[in-house]
Hints:
11% strand, disordered C terminus, alpha+beta, 5 strands, 304 residues
Amino acid sequence: xxxxxxxxxxxxxxxxxxxxxxxxxxxxxxxxxxxxxxxxxxxxxxxxxxxxxxxxxxxxxxxxxxxxxxxxxxxxxxxxxxxxxxxxxxxxxxxxxxxxxxxxxxxxxxxxxxxxxxxxxxxxxxxxxxxxxxxxxxxxxxxxxxxxxxxxxxxxxxxxxxxxxxxxxxxxxxxxxxxxxxxxxxxxxxxxxxxxxxxxxxxxxxxxxxxxxxxxxxxxxxxxxxxxxxxxxxxxxxxxxxxxxxxxxxxxxxxxxxxxxxxxxxxxxxxxxxxxxxxxxxxxxxxxxxxxxxxxxxxxxxxx
Length: 304
């Protein structure tokens, strides 16, 4: 089973990433010809990668074992080329190296879960589009009716337990809700893996990952792969138990002036069956409680 401890010194995290990418890169992918017979090592051997990157085998072994924590930019670029990393993976490699060079053992505090009032107003104005505010570790912090109802059954859980990664892997409805569940969960784990690489001691992240490693073999397998290529804007299809099959455009964006919070919004073209289903979802979802009148807010104890 995968280790429950995701915290580490920066060098070890850098080494883990390199090893994961090396073992998932085949000789054929990088143009190496190998002889017949069984290879004990999945993917590239350490000496093969070192040769491709133009560095000594001993230096590469030290990098992978977390003993070398200050690789030069040229070494990182050479390793990225040898491993055929995409832009996001290359950026992640650089971030890991920067963290390894300045690592401090004090874990950072968990970011605030408070959502500013104007963001809650924004969610309401986006109706009937399902929308929510999510934390860096995928906790659902605020939502409009459709934003919660779109993830069927999520409202069964207490508010503090509502986390999209937890939903994907542990809620019984998730697999039937998403026809491409495998794709969704790979993107989910890649996002958490990227965060763990640069903030592995963050308490909100360690608690979530520890829980999912214990409870979900699917999560544990994906976690070990160390994929960090994140999600891109796309259309998502839901087989929703209340409004039927609905395909929506998904958009996520960072919210300025917040502790890593993001806004997620789903959209449909007006006049389409998907938009009709979105309207139905918004109308039939549990509605927010009515806000008190202004004078009651100012004087909450005024007798009626």
